[in-house]
């Protein structure tokens, strides 16, 4: 699980260009404006490539994917 | 008797309240009367669409049958296969009636306008959402009566807010507890009152009392000054913007309030849009259910495809191409006139400029001050950019320059 989280934080940092993203694994990424639609899609595509999972856009319910912890949990379920 | 536009007259509210009473008493005692809900829907639809001549009502029936045919043949197809082109054809077929209706003013063809009925856009958004989510596999099953109930949910039938099937389904399959329902009635009454204030007092003041006078004044400069420009046009811009907001926000409040009375938490359409800090913020606050529909079903899907297939490399280019496509589609959706399209392009440019500014700000965070004054300036600037775009949208320039 920690592996997954570390990877996700890496992806978020790459996409947003912010070094301090993911320090708080419960930070709401949408509310705090870290992820806009474009960044969200980039994260989704990268998650698909890196973890080999399929996440359709309409599956992407913002409330379920809003923090590093939640993303890690969804990825683990889908893997 | 003529068709009654929803929420437009005291009559409508009287009929509505009488019809709602049994539903509300039922919910109070923890029951949903499915048969009665259906009958109430039919009565409201008759009042709305079968008043004067019946053509709107007949179009509505044919439209619903047509979309049903599409959704259910696609559902049974999707259970076995998942071809991209079949999916695309279904989406195209689902929007064809709307495209024809929108092209009508351009073609001036009498037979086409027969297809039109109030709210066709909003029904189409719902049908397309369902087809897209069936493709994604998040809607696995849907029964014909569930589809019709969602599509024809009468509080929102004429102009939204645009709900989502799975969210709506959760509400109607569930009966709220007494406490929850009291809460819903409370927010419903508040919204109804706010809606009355917005639509029938403030909206009426700007739209019915002020706007026609300012318009006459604005048009009196036609041919008198370069391009007919005048201070009256500036006044028109603000008056029209106020009218547009209060009228539409008022209507949306009614739709949400009536939904609440029926135990459905239809999403809100506006969240203090004139307090937006930038244009992106504005689209998260203005006609929210429409902009989120466009975001989820057009923008994000387009971005997803472009990034996945690596059609474009530069992320700024990708985002900008996305904005232009999105807002052009939105412009065409409003109608086939030059000012709606210019309105779309204007907003695409505003979004692109805004993104560029945000990138610049990110890089120079230390040099750029951020305080109460800059915040107030950001709100002021956004407000004026938005009002300017509504002035384009209003069509006043068309009257001033071309008609």
If you had to describe this structure to a student in words, what would you say it looks like?
The complex is a heterodimer of chains A (79) and B (403). Helices cover 52% and strands 0% of the residues of chain A. Chain A is mainly alpha-helical and 79 residues long. The longest helix of chain A has 15 residues, at 2-16. Chain B has 403 residues and is an all-alpha fold. Chain B folds into three domains: 10-175, no CATH class; 183-266; 271-403, no CATH class. Chain B has helices at 10-28, 34-49, 55-78, 84-107, 110-113, 120-136, 144-151, 165-172, 178-219, 231-261, 279-283, 288-308, 315-334, 338-363, 372-394, 396-401. In chain B, α1 (10-28) runs antiparallel to α2, α10 packs across α15 (372-394) and α12 crosses α13. Classes of the chains: A mainly alpha (79), B mainly alpha (403). The interface between A and B is medium-sized, with 15 and 21 residues.
Question: What is the fold's blueprint, element by element?
Answer:
The complex is a heterodimer of chains A (79) and B (403).
Chain A: H1 2-16, H2 37-51, H3 68-78
Helix pairs in contact in A: 1-2, 1-3
Chain B: H1 10-28, H2 34-49, H3 55-78, H4 84-107, H5 110-113, H6 120-136, H7 144-151, H8 165-172, H9 178-219, H10 231-261, H11 279-283, H12 288-308, H13 315-334, H14 338-363, H15 372-394, H16 396-401
Protein name (chain A): D-alanyl carrier protein
Domain Carrier (chain A): 2-79
Modified residues (O-(pantetheine 4'-phosphoryl)serine) (chain A): 37
By oligomeric state, this entry counts as heterodimer
How would you describe the shape of chain A?
globular
Helicity level of chain B: over 70%
For CATH, the homologous superfamily of chain A is named as ACP-like
Given helix and strand content, the structural type of chain B is mainly alpha
What is the CATH topology of chain A?
A: Non-ribosomal Peptide Synthetase Peptidyl Carrier Protein, Chain A
For the record, give the distance between the C-alpha atoms at the N and C termini of chain B, rounded to a whole number. 34 Å
Strand coverage percent of chain B: under 5%
Count of DSSP-assigned helices of chain B: 16
Cα end-to-end separation of chain A: 12 Å
Give the uncertain stretches of chain A in residue-range form.
none
CATH class of chain A reads Mainly Alpha
Poorly predicted sequence stretches spanning 5 or more consecutive residues of chain B: none
| Percent in strands of chain A | under 5%
Helix content of chain A: 40-55%
Number of helices of chain A: 3
How many separate domains of chain A?
1
Number-wise, the strands of chain B total 0
Sequence of secondary-structure elements of chain A = HHH
Biggest interface, CB < 8 A? A-B, 15 and 21 residues
Largest sheet of chain A: none
């Amino acid at each position: 699980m920690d592996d997954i989280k570390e990877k996700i934080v890496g992806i978020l940092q790459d996409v947003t260009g912010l070094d301090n993203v993911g320090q708080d694994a419960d930070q709401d990424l949408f509310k705090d404006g870290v992820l806009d639609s474009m960044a969200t899609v980039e994260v989704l595509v990268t998650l698909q490539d890196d973890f080999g999972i399929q996440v359709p856009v309409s599956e992407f319910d913002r409330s379920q994917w809003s923090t590093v912890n939640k993303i890690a949990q969804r990825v683990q379920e889908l893997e | 008797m003529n068709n009654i536009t929803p929420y437009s007259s005291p009559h409508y509210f009287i009929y509505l309240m009488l019809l709602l009473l049994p539903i509300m008493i039922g919910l109070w005692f923890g029951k949903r009367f499915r048969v009665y809900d259906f009958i109430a829907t039919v009565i409201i639809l008759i009042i709305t669409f079968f008043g004067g001549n019946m053509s709107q009502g007949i179009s509505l029936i044919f439209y619903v049958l047509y979309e049903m045919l599409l959704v259910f043949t696609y559902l049974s197809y999707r259970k076995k296969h998942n071809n991209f082109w079949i999916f695309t054809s279904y989406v195209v077929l689902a929007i064809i009636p709307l495209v024809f209706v929108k092209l009508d003013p351009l073609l001036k063809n009498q037979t086409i306008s027969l297809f039109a009925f109030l709210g066709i856009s909003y029904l189409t958004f719902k049908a397309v959402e369902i087809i897209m989510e069936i493709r994604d596999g998040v809607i696995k099953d849907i029964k014909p009566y569930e589809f019709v109930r969602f599509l024809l949910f009468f509080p929102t039938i004429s102009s939204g807010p645009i709900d989502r099937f799975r969210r709506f389904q959760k509400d109607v399959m569930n009966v709220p507890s007494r406490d929850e329902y009291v809460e819903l009635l409370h927010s419903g009454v508040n919204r109804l009152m706010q809606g009355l204030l917005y639509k029938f007092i403030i909206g009426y003041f700007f739209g019915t009392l002020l706007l026609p006078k300012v318009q006459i004044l604005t048009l009196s400069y036609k041919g008198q000054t370069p391009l007919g420009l005048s201070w009256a046009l500036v006044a028109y811009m603000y008056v029209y913007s106020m009218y547009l907001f209060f009228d539409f926000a008022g209507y949306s409040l009614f739709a949400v309030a009536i939904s609440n009375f029926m135990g459905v938490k239809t999403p809100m359409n506006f969240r203090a849009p004139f307090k937006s800090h930038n244009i992106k913020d504005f689209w998260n606050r203005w006609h929210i259910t429409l902009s989120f529909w466009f975001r989820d079903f057009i923008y994000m899907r387009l971005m997803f495809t472009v990034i996945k297939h690596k059609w474009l490399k530069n992320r700024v280019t990708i985002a900008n191409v996305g904005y232009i496509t999105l807002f052009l589609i939105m412009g065409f959706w409003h109608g086939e006139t030059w000012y709606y399209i210019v309105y779309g392009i204007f907003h695409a440019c505003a979004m692109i400029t805004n993104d560029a500014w945000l990138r610049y700000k990110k890089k120079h965070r230390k040099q750029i001050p951020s305080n109460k004054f800059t915040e107030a300036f950001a709100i002021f600037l956004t407000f004026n950019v938005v009002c300017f775009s509504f002035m384009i949208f209003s069509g006043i320039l068309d009257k001033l320059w071309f008609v």
